[in-house]
Amino acid sequence: MSGAPELDGLLHHPCLSLYFPSISISQPSPSLLTAMKAESGTTVNSLSTNHHQPNQQHPSPTHPEENLVSGALPRTRTTTTAPGDDHSELILVGDRTSPFSQRTLFALQERKIAYRFQEATDAQKSLDATATIPTQYLPFIIYRGTAVAGGSVNLIQFLEDAFPDHHPRLLSNDLIERARERLWSDYIRQYAVPLFVRALRARVTFHRCDSTTIAGLGKVLNNYCESCIGPFFSGDQLSLPDILIAPFVFQTRLSAFPRLATAASTLVDSGAGTRYQDYANQLLKCQSLKEVLPKNDVTIENLGIQIQAMSRRISPSVPPLPPEIITQIIDELGDYELAETLEVAHHIPPTSAWLELATPLDQAILSGRLARVIEVYAEEKETRLSTWGARVMVRFGYIAMLDYLLSVEPEQLHRLCDDLLPDVASAWERVNVLEWALHGGFGIRADASESAINEASINGHVAVLEWWKNSGVALKIGNVMDYASLESTTISLEWWARSGLEGKYSRMALLNATNQGHLKVLDWWLNSGLQLVYDKEILVGATKYGKLESLEWWFKSKLKVAYTIFDIEEAIEDCTNRQLEVHGWWKHQGIDQAGSAIDWTETKFLANSQA
């Protein structure tokens, strides 16, 4: 939340930092091992070995199916199919907060297709943010054991073909009407979505949406509604364009941001006319949409009404923040586990895992009270522990609970924590948990270091990296510099450079930094003296994700960077962030839509590149 200085200041208030000294909006990801496995089979570079491989092929990552959640979302029912259908044949993997995943959920719910929803791992979400091939996009579907290439539009059309007997159909049987639906679906993707995204970005960074964006979005929405032939796009029945635009309409109408319930709360779609407003209101009444979208009735008036005494973990000697501010901070973080263990009022719904998979013992652990854990285990005889409770103990450093459960349930604790503990402790900088595991009788497996070190590198946890270096554990080090380059600072990279350890890397190091606009990381690599490994995907990624700063960096670096007009034009078309500015930048480089087919596929180099 770099655009929210007010929130940044609040998050460093000692009222929260006493118990969570490293609390920030950017939360560490549990494990990116899956995300980087595509690179593990290739020859990599290290700090001491420089083998340039610019055109490596990278297989798409696997998508684990463990920990599947029955149903869709909290408050979302799983519809049933005809007798004899296999209810487990369709799994949707996505980010429930993403409008792109919500589109697919809406389509499944509307067409009454049975499915199971699986929240994507942080590894998959991280990969999705830098994906350059379709098999890495979220959401994706696992259909009869096979992953279907992702992207909401592709998936919705796949469902049309895979489940022809489920109604209503979202594409018309009339070929002319179907062509019109697809044309306007593409219009939504190309024109409406980039403006919605810009407006929503302003909203979540505490800024008023600029008038140019509101006016532009209004014009686009008015054009769209002029082509609607009924209450919905194709008449009385929902069709593909309605499904694609609905989550974005919903996001603009949320009352979940109380700071916008003031004079600055102009609806970002207020530039659209009456016809659109009627259309939006009708769309948001759809029952299947209500079932897949989060319900949020938070207003500035009722914030803090149910707030009780501040957590026992907050020192009474520290001047407290107003409870309304604490609630806003916690709500903005969206972290259910943190909100529950702090015991402050919040409006974050429990995740589907905590609703459906957590045991009574897990819930006791989440309370943060050892006495409650002992009561549930010894007196109520609730002895089953799940991954979620184990993760909370490690994440929040509950050593006393770990000690207790190791004494009464050693086999169960080892089964759950042998793999989980090193990764989660490293991701959340819990050196005390690592110390407990190594010296307190639990133990750390010999093969646990690689993914744990990657986690520490991603999050800039130098203390954890030092712990692993000095632990005496035989270290297994993979492409750790790739992970370190995901961090927006150079803390981890600098540590590895002076550590004396062999830190390996591949083309993903520069690609990660470029796709996320981490110029400090790019500068570090340029000045490091190490062999730079990259290929033409560098410019494709920067273009697709609207990273003008990265494009400028590569141009000014004078490094020899290849591209083809075909790849760049395709990336510009897919760009949803600063698309016009990106197109203008490339036009300044001499790219336009003219030219022969040979010109489009010929390898070219940035004009400022050294020969």
Largest sheet: 4 strands, mixed
Gap between N and C termini: 40 Å
Q: What's the gyration radius in Å?
A: 25 Å
- Sheet-strand content, in percent, reads under 5%
Number of contiguous helices: 31
What's the overall average pLDDT, rounded?
76
The CATH topology name of the domain at 175-292 reads Glutathione S-transferase Yfyf (Class Pi), Chain A, domain 2
CATH class of the domain at 175-292: Mainly Alpha
Tertiary shape: globular
| Named CATH architecture of the domain at 175-292 | Up-down Bundle
- Number-wise, the strands total 8
Question: What can you tell me about this protein's structure?
Answer:
The protein is mostly helical and 611 residues long. Among the domains are: 87 residues, Glutaredoxin, CATH 3.40.30; 118 residues, Glutathione S-transferase Yfyf (Class Pi), Chain A, domain 2 (Up-down Bundle); 76 residues, no CATH class. Helix content is 50%, strand content 4%. It has 31 helices and eight strands. Strands 3-2-4-5 form a four-stranded mixed sheet, with helices on one face. Strand 4 and strand 5 form a beta hairpin. Helix 15 packs antiparallel against helix 16 and helix 19 packs antiparallel against helix 20. The chain is globular. The chain starts with a helix and ends in a 6-residue tail after the last strand.
Strand-helix topology:
Layout: H1 5-11, H2 14-17, H3 33-40, E1 45-46, E2 90-94, H4 99-110, E3 116-119, H5 122-129, E4 140-143, E5 146-148, H6 152-162, H7 175-204, H8 211-226, H9 240-253, H10 274-283, H11 287-292, H12 323-333, H13 336-342, H14 352-356, H15 360-366, H16 370-379, H17 387-395, H18 399-408, H19 410-427, H20 431-439, H21 449-458, H22 462-470, H23 480-484, H24 491-499, E6 504-505, H25 508-515, H26 519-527, H27 537-544, H28 548-557, E7 562-563, H29 565-574, H30 579-588, H31 597-601, E8 604-605
Parallel strand pairs: 2-3
Antiparallel strand pairs: 1-6, 2-4, 4-5, 7-8
Helix pairs in contact: 3-5, 4-6, 4-9, 7-8, 7-9, 15-16, 15-17, 17-19, 18-19, 19-20, 19-21, 21-22, 25-27, 27-29
